[in-house]
From TrEMBL:
<dbReference type="GO" id="GO:0006935">
    <property type="term" value="P:chemotaxis"/>
</dbReference>
<dbReference type="Pfam" id="PF01052">
    <property type="entry name" value="FliMN_C"/>
</dbReference>
<comment type="similarity">
    <text>Belongs to the FliN/MopA/SpaO family.</text>
</comment>
<keyword id="KW-1003">Cell membrane</keyword>
<keyword id="KW-0966">Cell projection</keyword>
<feature type="domain" description="Flagellar motor switch protein FliN-like C-terminal">
    <location>
        <begin position="34"/>
        <end position="106"/>
    </location>
</feature>
<keyword id="KW-0969">Cilium</keyword>
<keyword id="KW-0283">Flagellar rotation</keyword>
<dbReference type="GO" id="GO:0009425">
    <property type="term" value="C:bacterial-type flagellum basal body"/>
</dbReference>
<dbReference type="InterPro" id="IPR001543">
    <property type="entry name" value="FliN-like_C"/>
</dbReference>
<dbReference type="InterPro" id="IPR036429">
    <property type="entry name" value="SpoA-like_sf"/>
</dbReference>
<protein>
    <recommendedName>
        <fullName>Flagellar motor switch protein FliN</fullName>
    </recommendedName>
</protein>
<dbReference type="InterPro" id="IPR001172">
    <property type="entry name" value="FliN_T3SS_HrcQb"/>
</dbReference>
<keyword id="KW-0145">Chemotaxis</keyword>
<dbReference type="GO" id="GO:0003774">
    <property type="term" value="F:cytoskeletal motor activity"/>
</dbReference>
<keyword id="KW-0472">Membrane</keyword>
<dbReference type="GO" id="GO:0071973">
    <property type="term" value="P:bacterial-type flagellum-dependent cell motility"/>
</dbReference>
Length: 112
């Protein structure tokens, strides 16, 4: 005799799990429910607009000229939404990594 659960009981259990995980009927999950979720922030340093022929000639150690100076502010994006601006700086931990010191921050209250 098998100790497995009958197929329709398994389906009922899964349905119960789905109901438990469904958003609240009173407007969905609260913003606090997402605060622990990691999100990718893209730092846009500058743009380049080379001709396709120039792009095809790029090799290792080639330098692609950007439209910005080293001291120009950088933009921080989540998806296509601009969330902040800042200045590049070397991290003080001696790792040689870059960080961004924020100088402007968008109002994100409506986005969360």
């Amino acid at each position: 005799m098998s100790t497995e659960t009958a197929p329709d009981t398994q389906a009922t259990n899964r349905l119960g799990e789905i109901e438990m995980l469904s958003p609240r009927r009173s407007g969905g999950p609260t913003p606090q429910a997402f605060r622990g979720v990691p999100i990718e922030v893209v730092v846009a340093v500058g743009r380049a607009r080379p001709m396709i022929a120039d792009l095809a000639r790029l090799r290792r150690d080639s330098v692609l000229s950007l439209d910005t100076a080293l001291t120009d502010p950088v933009d921080l994006y989540v998806g296509d939404r601009l969330i902040a601006r800042g200045e590049l700086q070397e991290m003080e931990d001696g790792s040689g990594r870059l960080g961004v010191r924020l100088t402007e921050i968008a109002d994100l209250e409506d986005a969360v």
